[in-house]
Here is the input.
Amino acid sequence: MKIHTQLFIAVVLLTSCSKTEHYPTVPLSTYYPLDTGKYILYRIDSLVFTNFGQNSEIHSYIAKDTVDGILLDNLGRTMYRVHRFLTDTLLANPWQDDITYTVTPTANTIEVDENNLRFIKLTEPFTTNLTWYGDSYLGDDPFQTFYGNLTSQNELQGWQFNYANIGQPYQIGQITVPNSITVQEANDSMNVPLPNDSVFAHKSLAFEVYGAGIGLVYKTFIFWDFQPVTPDLPGHYEGFGVTQYMLQHN
Here is the structure.
């Protein structure tokens, strides 16, 4: 009996040591489909600081992102051109050209290049055990052109992205996305809420949700610093925020 028990333990140990985890093979195109003519309609609420950082405002738009062409990058890789048009939230005014950005699917990533800033949005496999540096292509002071010398902006390259809620439904107003995946990017703050105007404060909150067969369905990116009062300047905010959510798609 003792011999049989020892053999059983040995088999269990051998099986445990040789066991490898296998994740379901789900192509990146499941959550980021790219076909010419595909569009998604979004509402975008943009946080901006005005009056030299003394006040904040929310500017809202309706955006239409349309895949309108296929190109090759300088490495000979296929990339998809996405054209964004904007109008007001009542859809009363004509659509206006806004930006054009590109999406490049590689062997195991989805990369988006917008305003000359490249991000690794998705990577394989879809598992909560995976992390990656989604902002690793960003150079120093990536937002300086638009928002000045934000103290915390060089921290973006160290953000570790990871997946959550894989294959779970996601609710956007009255729309239910039955199969989604969340990319968690950052959730960090210092001295928030602001105790007084003599201390430095910072907030970074970023995550995106992708729907199977749809693409990006929700996005939050809030990134600001509060610079404390000095003899020459009052305390003031620097930075921006964007909330973007899907209204419809084809």
